[in-house]
Design goal:
The chain is an alpha/beta fold. It has a single domain, classed as Rossmann fold, CATH 3.40.50.720. Helices cover about 40% and strands about 15% of the residues. It contains 11 helices and 12 strands. The strands form 4 sheets. Strands 2-1-3-4-5-10 form a 6-stranded parallel beta sheet, with helices on both faces. The longest helix has 22 residues. It is globular and about 55 Å long. The structure holds NADP nicotinamide-adenine-dinucleotide phosphate (NAP). NADP nicotinamide-adenine-dinucleotide phosphate binds next to helix 1 and strand 4.
Length: about 300
């Protein structure tokens, strides 16, 4: 089979690692870390890096960015540089070189006021600097070429960076007598491995352009997400001090930090119609993730 070449900018992030994992078997990979291409660089320096490293790529995926929502609020110029200006440089370079470009965006482009899943056609109304920067990054991606694709994701977790909800929820349940988690946010916990796998059939398909939503199916509150993680850890034999996760409100937790949308379940009907595939329910991949990546850290051998 003629192997195609896939460039992944942000290869050390959670999603970047999963993308590499699923692409490795059938495609040639070019992985770029922050050291190869820093999104803080000027347009000229980013282009130099792309010229020398992304040689002959069929598609370039950008999974790097400033993903720290509160830091973006405190440092809007950096959010703009990392999530918009550098995206425009990469998107324009790709268009000039005939490389299809896929960028990742976020459920935070919405205000969370709906109570049914958001479709790709729903108007964006970001509540935070991070959300606005992702909207502007989407625009920069799609303006550069009509072959480009923006994939919106939500409530991501996965191997590589143990900082997501399953990792800290179990950690705190082991260490603390009480654990309270926000109960007035609703979303769909989404496994990076499933997101990367779902994208495989669309990687080189120019007709899959514009905006696309991907998430595991089903939904829950953040408190229910944390509770499920703790339950899975207990199933694996992890000794916890907190068995029942209590409720908090967003106001209790975030106070005057960046405002988060209340409801951000994404509709995947467009993806299902395009591919004939459905995404797995959120619980089973999460159970496996806790078993393989979280519980072993707390089990005595
Ligand atoms: N996490 C979520 O819940 C979530 C939800 C919706 C959408 N998304 C979107 O999904 C995409 C992937 O998210 P993720 O969870 O995989 O993020 P992540 O694990 O935080 O990874 C982000 C990557 O960006 C890199 N990066 C940060 N600053 C950089 C810079 N100045 N130059 C170059 N690289 C830089 C990081 O490099 P280092 O490894 O060197 O730090 C890291 O590899 C992002 O576009 C994000 O906005 C995420």
């Amino acid at each position: 089979m003629n192997r195609k070449k896939v460039a992944i900018i942000g290869s050390n992030g959670r999603l970047g690692r999963s993308l590499q994992e699923v692409c490795r078997e059938d495609h040639d990979l070019i992985g770029l870390s922050r050291y190869d291409l820093d999104l803080a660089w000027s347009d000229g320096k980013i282009r130099e890096a792309l010229d020398s490293l992304v040689v002959g790529a069929d598609v370039a995926l950008l999974s790097a960015g400033n993903t720290n929502v509160d830091l973006c609020e405190a440092q809007p110029d950096e959010a703009e540089q990392l999530n918009v200006t550098s995206v425009r440089s990469i998107a324009n370079w790709c268009a000039e070189q005939g490389v299809r470009f896929i960028n990742f965006s976020s459920d935070y482009v919405f205000d969370g006021e709906k109570d049914t899943p958001y479709t790709e056609d729903d108007p964006v109304e970001p509540l935070s600097i991070y959300g606005q920067s992702k909207v502007d990054g989407e625009d920069a991606t799609l303006e550069a070429s009509d072959r480009n694709l923006v994939v919106r994701l939500t409530w991501l977790y996965g191997p590589g960076k143990p900082l997501a909800t399953p990792d800290w929820a179990v950690d705190l349940a082991v260490k603390q007598d009480h654990l309270n988690v926000v109960s007035d946010r609703i979303g769909s916990p989404s496994y990076t491995g499933d997101m990367a796998d779902a994208l495989l059939p669309l990687l080189f398909d120019d007709s899959a352009s514009g905006i696309l939503h991907l998430c595991n199916s089903g939904s829950c509150t953040w408190q229910e997400w944390a509770q499920f993680c703790v339950d899975c850890a207990i199933e694996c034999g992890v000794e916890v001090k907190t068995r029942e996760v209590g409720p908090l409100t967003m106001n209790d937790l975030f106070g005057d930090r960046a405002t988060r949308p209340r409801y951000t379940v994404l509709s995947t009907e467009k993806y299902e119609a395009m591919t004939g595939r459905t995404l797995p329910d959120w619980r089973e991949p999460l159970r496996q993730y806790v078993r393989d990546h979280v519980a072993p850290r707390f089990l005595r051998i």
